[in-house]
Structure formats: structure tokens, C-alpha cells
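Note to self: keep these together.
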Amino acid sequence: MLADLSEAERLRLAISAAGDLVYDWTPGDGRMVWSGDPAAHLGVAEATQFLTDSEFHALIDSAAAEARMRLVLSPPADGGPFHLEYSMQTGGAPVWIEERGVCMPGADGHAERIVGLVRNITERKLREAHLAWAASYDEMTGHLNRLRLRERLAEHLEMGNGKPKAVAYFVAAIDDLAVINETYGFDAADEVIVAVGRRLSEAAGPTSVIGRTAGNKFGVIIENCTAAEMADRASALRTAVRTRVIPTGAGAVSATVSLGGVALDQDARSSQEAMARAEEALDRSKSTGRDTFAAYAHSAQRESMRKRTVSIGDQIVTALAENRIVLAYQPIVDAKTGDVSAHECLVRIQKPEGEIIGAGDFIPVAEQLGLIRRLDRRVLELSIAQLEQHRGAALSLNVSGMTASDGPTLESYVSYIEAHADVAPRLVVELTETAALIDIEESMRFVSRVRALGAKVAIDDFGAGYTSFRNLQSLHVDMVKIDGSFVKGLAASRDNQIFVRTLVDLARNFQLSTVAEWVADAREADILKAFGVDYLQGFYFGKPQIETPWKD
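Structure:
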């Protein structure tokens, strides 16, 4: 029983259980007495008991041995604790040791006795080393990660200040990696990524620097490469990848890369700009096909567009932060009675001075910059607030393709409706036909959950896609909104009339309500009524207005 053991024995067991081994070292005669087997405890292959300090010091690194002897000669005046970490070489992999102890000074001021604990911390050191390595390198390829590559770019730019140096930065993208994934599997695609990185590195030369910047992309810094030589160096990189097939576990794979490049001494003032301009050149390269190269070329028009995009992006973010996202309401009327049955909520930005910015001026940028999800959420919040404030209101709002195809965003969207389920029966959520078909299964789940809360779901821009006839019934929506391009000029277009009538008949067969958009005049309205359209929307019935149209 543990209670029957001496205090010293219980202490020894506790220390051993903690992963420590105790030693008692008397430097005067060099003896080291251990509480257990040090070789086994420390994982040392050699069967030695380390009975003397010389035996122990022979295996640990020289700096640690010197530090231990300094403790003997100059121990802490108050006998305070010390802490050391060092490696022990045993003929195999190094063993890392943590040592903690206290020195007991003798009459001469030197340590007469040292008592300490040692612990094998090899596993911890290996883990720390891996984390330090992973902070700089891509785990799959072993090349630099994006952050470290950007730092190396910055170093080259700093070295070139005042003394131009011919250095080029290339970004190489593996062509059609998604096809390789689908055809050969993800494991084979990973093997392709590793092989392409290795070939690019070899072709770039020993003084080059390579890093993995994205899933299918590598950045390569090549010294002594002028702007005039970039095309030749890019050709060598492409050839190195293209010439031989890549053996993988799923079979031989043929791969190519497309490249964009920028001359640092001419076209980049910062590492961020170098990377952005190389990516811009890559996009231009890929637009011409596979296995291509394009060098960055300054374009005043492109730079103007970029600045405009950034400016509009800033406007959107600021408007979201300052609650200057507002709604414009356009009436949707019952085709039979002419009464307003609902309003569609259209997003707008209100400038600080009151000016209203239409959706067409910022929605494309919001989609490009990924801000459309935040706008969708804000429109939902504003719409539900109006429904809660005005019991007679019924609203319809749009969900973008980006929101509709992103699972977590959709989950948050539905949860918000669920939290305000009392107004859900007066809400219609519009999915564009294209967005609904990006991920038909995700769309089906979304529609099902929204309708279960009492809200309705409409397919917007119906007729603009190509597979809606096959998938319309499986979505189980409540209504379809006929794409306005088929309503515009309807009275003068026999083809559009035939197409719209067909869409209306199709919807009726699926027991779906129909809404015709962009109705501009009485003639179009009469034709649509004759076709059996249920609801009408357009400037003929009212333009979008910021003022709320409800009196209650």
C-alpha cells in the first residue's frame, strides 16, 4: 500500500510518474547517483549508468557541459534554482533533455553538491521544431509559404533601392488542376502539385526562391533576369513541367503551367504590388489558353478600373459600418385586380449628404470583392425590421449566387429568418435561376427550410438558364419571376410572346405563381394578363422608392 511506503519512496514514485529522474551530483569526486536507470529513462541507446559527470558530459553538447561546470565553479549565491535545455548525442537521433536543480555551495564558494531533475523533452522539441518549420514552409511541397515568399520579395526590393537589380517574379498556375482532381483523384493531384513545384525549382536554378502561394500556384523569384529575358525564363519553366509526364499512384499525368511575371526593378514598388501584378499578368495569360505566359504591362485603363473597384469597395464597407445601406421598394401588383400585393426590396447606398447610389453601380463590385454576402444579410435584416414594424407589409428580397452557394452563409441566413418566424409568412426570398442551380442539393435544402418557416421562395430571372425545366419541380418553390429581358419589348416580339407563354404554361403545370418583371406599358401588361401571369412588376406600376409605402 502507498501509505506503507516511506516519504522518500513516495516522493520518488511521484517524481517518476511526472516523467522526471532525480540525480545527486557531488562535483568533488564527480559521482552522480540516480533515482532510476538514466539510460532507459532518457531513451539513450547506450547501456550506461552515467555514474560520473565525465560520462554524462561526454554525450551532451559541449555548451551544456560547460554550463554545468560553470554552475560548479559559480553557483547562485542564494543556492537558487537553475534551468538548462540541451541535446545528447547517442549515435542515433539526438535526445533533448530538460534539467532543473539547485546548487549547494561549499566553504570555498564552489558547488559542493547539486541535486536536480532531468526529463526527456525530445517529443516537445520535435513538435516545436515542426511548428517553427510550418510557420515558414508549405507542408505538402516543402517550399516557402506565401508569407515567407513575400518577405523574400521585400528583401529583393530593399536591396534594389538606389541600385537597380535585375530580378523577376513569376507566378505559375497548374492548368486544369480541378480536372486532374476529378479524373485521377485528390491524392494524384497532390502528387502533381509536389512534382510541378520540384520541376519549377530545378528549372529556375539554385539561386532562385520558390514558394507555394495558393492551391495550384507557385511564386518564383529569379535573380539576374531582366524584363527582356522574362519570356525565355518563363519558357524554360513551362518546358520543365510539360516535357515529361508525372508518375502518380493513379497513373501517369500530363501537366502544364501558365505564368504571369513582373520585373521588380521596373514594375513593383512593394512585395504586395509585385504579387498582385504578377497575378494580373497570369489572368491575362490564362485568358489566351493553357501553357502560356504574359508579362505585366502597365495599363492606364486597367489601373483606373482597379482604383474605381477599390473606391467602391471602400464605399460599401463604410456604408455597412455607418448603417447607410437602405432599401428601395417597388410594387408587385395582382394582375387580376391591379392591387399591390407586395413590394420587392432593392438595395441602395445612401451617401452621407443624402444622395442615393443605385445597385447597378456597386453590386458587381460587391460580388467581385466578396462583399455581396454582407449586403444580402443587411437587406434581410432591414426587410424583417420593416415587416415587424408594418403588419400590412409583404416583402420580396433577393439572395445572390455567392450567398446561395455558401453553406455557412446560407445557414446563418436561414437562422435569422427562424429567429423572426412570426413575420416569415409575409416574406418571399428570391433565388436567381443560375444561383439555384450552382448546387441543386444545397438549394433544395435551403428552399425546404425557408418554406418550413412559412416564407415563400421564388426563382428569379426564370428562363435565363438552361436546366430549369428539369430541376424546377425538385426545388419545390412557390413562384417564378419571368426574366425581364423576355418582357421588354414584348408587344413587338412574336418570339418573346411564344417563349413567355410557354414559361407561364410550364409554371401553371407545376402549380407555381408567375411574376412578370420589367413591365413598361399597358400593352405589355395586357398581353401578360392574357397569358395568365399572376403578378406584374415594372416601371408601369411604379419605380423603386426609398420612402416606405405603408401607412400603418
